[in-house]
């Protein structure tokens, strides 16, 4: 070990000795958890490298295509790498997919026809799906095309309502949408194993139903993905886990060939499908980001575990709590008071490599019924695999915290957040 005193560089970043000492002591108790997270990352790293080698990814795959993008071997190689990593027949991985919401829309709209019904057996989906499905009336929604929607909530203890699901399934049920991460809802994130049980149950009732998993924030958190346990389609965003922090845009859809193709006809046009779509130079960052994604996801997970363990002893409830198993990278911490939520977000912002000098302020946002505060100092605008936090300014004043491209950076963000909080609430210690 070098004799450089690490506390002094923390000092130059505004971390007092007592905050440093407290956090170092917390961290000492977490090495075993971190070790387990690293073992998962190791497994997933090998899975990705294996897929790259199997598909003979070479320098030529890294070059851009323009125009129609016919015969773009980089794009085709990238999609084979995704398909082999998720153990699916096919994949659609494109910079033309704007975000996770768009990927979900493409997968749904491509595979549903008038008269079909969608079932969500895990409660209300992520907010942005309200307008896609037409839960909130919206121009262009699936409801406008005669596609109906049913929902079965989880039971109060978080378990599946097996009987309710059975009753909700009918001859029009074409697709079941299963959201892995809790998003901003108050329910536990689903493990891949539980998703597998749900899919098996649905397939026993109606084998022809398409099981789609919204995999946002879940990729590489476990060794298995929902496609390993029967999901027909798995969908996510490249500015979250699988982009590894390098993808500047994009989304992915992996699954059965037939369903991925239907999605591709919706993304481009009937008759065109996957055959075209210029990569415009994104392929290199998609491939390298996917290569880094297992360890980037591990860094974010360690940051989340660290945050829960740092704040819980002060009496701030953490979801998941300090000891729980993780199935996504999101950490919620309730601060109970608006000024503490603000202080937390200020600390996260102050730790950022980009825009660290900006002070986040609560603001009215479309789609929210209260002001929202957001902290993000990201290389890729809005990327939530980078260290970021946000929270609605209403009880319980919870911060939703995620990301961190490296663990030392996530750790610094949490230490800065704690520093801000003790600065304004001296009675905390
Ligand atoms: C992030 C997310 C989405 C999609 O969000 P975008 O902001 O459009 O990328 C969908 N579902 C869940 C659960 C998410 O976390």
Describe this structure in words.
The protein has 429 residues and is of the alpha/beta class. The chain has two domains: 3-43 and 291-428, Alpha-Beta Complex (Aspartate Aminotransferase, domain 1); 64-290, Type I PLP-dependent aspartate aminotransferase-like (Major domain) (Aspartate Aminotransferase, domain 2). It has twelve helices and 13 strands. The chain has helices spanning 6-12, 17-28, 31-54, 73-85, 100-111, 129-133, 162-168, 192-205, 257-267, 283-311, 338-350, 407-424, and strands spanning 90-94, 117-120, 148-151, 173-179, 210-214, 233-237, 251-255, 318-319, 331-334, 363-364, 371-376, 388-392, 398-402. The strands form two sheets. It has a seven-stranded mixed β-sheet, sandwiched between helices. A hairpin with a 5-residue loop joins strand 12 (388-392) and strand 13. The mean pLDDT is 96. The structure holds pyridoxal-5'-phosphate.
What is the CATH architecture descriptor of the largest domain? Answer: 3-Layer(aba) Sandwich
Helix-strand makeup class: alpha/beta
Instruction: Report the CATH topology name of the largest domain.
Output: Aspartate Aminotransferase, domain 2
Rg: 22 Å
Biggest sheet statistics: 7 strands, mixed
- Number of extended strands: 13
Total domain units = 2
Bound molecules: pyridoxal-5'-phosphate
Strand residue percentage: 5-15%
Average pLDDT, to the nearest integer? 96
Number of helices: 12
Question: What is the overall silhouette?
Answer: globular
Distance between the termini: 31 Å
Report low-confidence residues grouped into runs of 5 or more: none
Q: How helix-rich are the residues, as a percent range?
A: 25-40%
CATH class bucket of the largest domain: Alpha Beta
List the helices and strands in order.
HHHHEHEHEHEHEEEHHEEHEEEEH
Annotated CATH homologous superfamily of the largest domain: Type I PLP-dependent aspartate aminotransferase-like (Major domain)
Strands in their spatial order, largest beta sheet: 1-7-6-5-4-2-3
């Amino acid at each position: 070990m070098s004799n450089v005193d690490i506390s002094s560089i923390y000092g130059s970043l505004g971390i007092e000795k007592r905050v440093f000492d407290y956090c170092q002591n917390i961290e000492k108790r977490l090495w075993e958890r971190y070790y387990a997270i690293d073992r998962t990352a190791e497994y997933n790293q090998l899975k990705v490298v294996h897929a790259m080698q199997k598909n003979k990814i070479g320098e030529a795959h890294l070059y851009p295509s323009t125009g129609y993008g016919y015969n773009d071997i980089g794009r085709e190689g990238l999609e084979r790498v995704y398909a082999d990593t998720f153990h699916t027949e096919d994949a659609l991985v494109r910079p033309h997919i704007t975000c996770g919401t768009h990927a979900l829309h493409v997968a749904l709209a491509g595979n549903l026809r008038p008269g079909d019904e969608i079932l969500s057996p895990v409660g209300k989906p992520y907010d942005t799906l309200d307008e896609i499905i037409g839960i909130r009336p919206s121009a262009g929604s699936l409801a406008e095309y005669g596609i109906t929607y049913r929902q079965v909530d989880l039971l109060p203890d978080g378990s599946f309502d097996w009987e309710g699901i059975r009753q909700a399934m009918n001859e029009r049920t074409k697709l079941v949408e299963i959201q892995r991460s809790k998003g901003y809802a108050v329910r536990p994130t689903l493990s891949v194993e539980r998703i597998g049980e749900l899919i098996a149950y649905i397939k026993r009732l109606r084998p022809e139903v398409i099981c789609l998993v919204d995999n946002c924030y879940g990729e590489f958190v476990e060794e298995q993905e929902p496609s390993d346990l029967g999901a027909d389609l798995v969908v996510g965003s490249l500015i979250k886990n699988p982009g590894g922090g390098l993808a500047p845009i994009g989304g992915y859809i992996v699954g059965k060939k037939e369903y991925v193709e239907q999605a591709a006809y919706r993304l481009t046009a009937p008759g065109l499908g996957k055959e075209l779509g210029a990569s415009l130079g994104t392929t290199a960052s998609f491939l390298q980001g996917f290569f880094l994604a297992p360890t980037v996801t591990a860094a974010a997970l360690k940051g989340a575990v660290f945050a829960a363990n740092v704040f819980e002893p002060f009496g701030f409830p953490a979801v998941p709590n300090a000891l729980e198993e993780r199935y996504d990278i999101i950490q919620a911490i309730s601060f109970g008071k608006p000024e503490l939520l603000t202080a937390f977000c200020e600390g996260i912002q102050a730790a950022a490599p980009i825009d660290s000098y900006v002070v986040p302020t609560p603001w009215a946002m479309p789609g929210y019924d209260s002001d929202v505060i957001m902290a993000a100092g990201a290389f890729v605008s809005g990327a939530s695999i980078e260290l970021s936090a946000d929270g609605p300014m209403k009880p319980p004043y919870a911060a939703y915290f995620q990301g961190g491209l490296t663990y030392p950076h996530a750790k610094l963000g949490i230490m800065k957040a704690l520093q801000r909080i003790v600065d304004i609430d001296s009675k905390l210690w």
